[in-house]
Amino acid sequence: MSGTYLDSSVLEKLIAAAVAAPSMHNTQPWRFRLDTESTTVEIHADVRRGLPHEDPHGRALHIAAGAALFNLRVAVSHFGWKPVTRLLPDHRHPDLLASVHITGRTSTRTLHGDDLYEAIWHRHSSRFPFGVQPVPVSVRHELAEAARAEGATLAVTGPRETARLLRITTEAERRNHADPARSAESRRWSSRDGAEDTGIPSAALGPQDTFEQLPMRDFSARRSLDQLPARPFERTPALASLRTGHDRRTDWLRAGQALEYVLLVATAHGLRTSVLHQALEWTDLRDDLRPATSPFDHVQMLIRFGYGPEGPPTPRRTPRLFLELDGAVPQGDRY
User: Does CATH number 3.40.50.300 belong to domain 8-121+318-325?
Assistant: First the structure.
């Protein structure tokens, strides 16, 4: 991209797209740095926003960073440039998770299509009941292809496997309730109405399932039962398991990119999504999530999808708060 510059409005749009990605409890555990000489955007882990009790190894943090990376790639190509991505580019700096070199104009306007770029701004987790309308097979195939394109496998589960995964998730939710440190950590990031630009506001928490079959995370009961009583959820939820062949840091980053690709494709098709992450926070239960047909795969996420109400948006910090320019805060009209 020699000889060209990112003006402030475009750069802020790129970072805004990246930080629109999902993260566990909406902690937004990332920082960005722009190297102006090479026009490279670096994504760093913000370990101050980690979850030491619920995510002690940083797997969920890496998945969030991978999702932010995918959004950044989509946005860069949307503006007509080519994103060249490297994962963990410098072993001397373990918090440097990825870099995106923004280079020459592409022959096509966008790498993934304008629908995905628009979906970035409309993708919100929906923790509410979905309807019974089935998802077309063609859409399911498209979701699976999105995951495959990023080096992961997405498998929609049948009724028996879905029931098994829900039982494991229910056990994880029970353990979370019984663990004071995890419960306190969850509470710190929920019901931050109007006070913070991170975390999950009460309006986005969603109700519990009247049938007690679908174990939605209850964030240690921070929701008001008077304002949001339990409601009947779908009796046979549509679930998909996102898996990778290995379980290294690079695999977590790839899983995050695959997750976001899947979520954006789903959003573009009018689907609502949410994740069931609880069992992934316990080593033994995460192992139990592996299907008998793929015992050596590593489950990275359980995704619930269907047709239903759009989830309320969760807050985001201002892009400038995430971004450094060669170690300094950018000023003026150009970065």
Answer: no
Q: State how far the alpha carbon of 270 is from the alpha carbons of 59, 98, 257, in Å.
A: 29, 30, 20
**Is 31 strand, coil or helix?**
strand
Q: Judge contact between 25 and 51, C-beta under 8 A.
A: yes
Quote the CA–CA distance of 150 and 98 in Å, as a whole number: 15
Select 137-306's CATH number: 3.40.640.10, 3.40.109.10, 1.20.1600.10, 3.30.1360.10. 3.40.109.10
**CB-based burial label for 2 (10 Å; 0-12, 13-18, 19+):** exposed
pLDDT tens track for 11-69: 999 999 999 999 999 999 999 999 988 899 999 999 999 999 999 999 999 999 999 99
The ranges of the chain annotated as CATH 3.40.109.10 are: 8-121+318-325, 137-306
The predicted model scores a pTM of 0.93
Residue found under tokens 């928490």: 205
Residue 1 pLDDT: 42
Both tokens of residue 215? 């174990």
> Do 327 and 277 contact (CB within 8 A), yes or no?
no
